[in-house]
Amino acid sequence: xxxxxxxxxxxxxxxxxxxxxxxxxxxxxxxxxxxxxxxxxxxxxxxxxxxxxxxxxxxxxxxxxxx
Length: 67
Prior knowledge:
Number of strands: 3
Oligomer: single chain
Number of helices: 2
Low-confidence stretches: none
């Protein structure tokens, strides 16, 4: 059974950190994990969604947390 890593955008005021980087996505995918990200996750650090590679996206945090 594969593990799913779900990551949502940071919502604290003035917070710019991202919990999962494209490099870490590659490592987790190589281990067989499914990655589910909230769209715009990397926006505070100027990382477009495409930078995360072959992952699944949800339109909002609820979409990530309910899957």
